[in-house]
Amino acid sequence: MKSALYLACALVFTAAIPAVENPLEPGASLPKPDMKWMDVSGKEISLNNAKGNNGLLIVFGGNQCPYMVRNQERLHNICALAHKNGIGVVMVNSNEANRADGDSFSAMKAYATQHAFQCYYILDKNAELADAFDANHTPECYLFDKNNRLVYKGAIDDNPGNADAVKARHLQNAITELVAGKSITTNTSSTLGCNIKRNR
Description:
Layout: H1 2-16, E1 37-39, E2 44-45, H2 47-50, E3 55-61, H3 66-70, H4 72-84, E4 87-93, H5 105-115, E5 120-123, H6 128-133, E6 137-138, E7 140-144, E8 150-154, H7 170-179, E9 194-195
Parallel strand pairs: 3-4, 4-5
Antiparallel strand pairs: 1-2, 1-5, 3-7, 6-9, 7-8
Protein name: Redoxin family protein
Keywords: Signal
InterPro entries: PRX-like1, Redoxin, Thioredoxin-like_sf, Thioredoxin_domain
């Protein structure tokens, strides 16, 4: 009787512990592909809507991060390379704790106009996408193939703080290999940047 009661209590306790999702790893499916997100254009889009014939690149970013400033030229080049190769690009602002400040929707629109990135720029309400991707930094990149399978995640290159010291262009190489039908030589890399400002 005691053992049965102990087992019942243990089961209730276990059920009360929330499940922890695994970090997104290469080979994983694109999270939330059909959910709608507000773009700075004023239109709602889904990630599937944004995908190109050869895949989709997701970049978690923000308006004020010093690392975004240091990577702006590199982001422009990556967006151009992606579009040239039939890959859609979405930049995601998940800084929910900064909505009353520099990451408000109006600030996002001004930022997009100022820097003229060739991509969608969407507001991630309550950091839902960041949580689904297990994204934690800006910039942080996720490249998916045409079948919505993750082929690369991580940084743009090996030196986000100094463009002049870059030795390995991880994301550029991944895009080139993806379009060529090759396996991705480096499919993960460490990210360095500002923390995503979640509201918790």
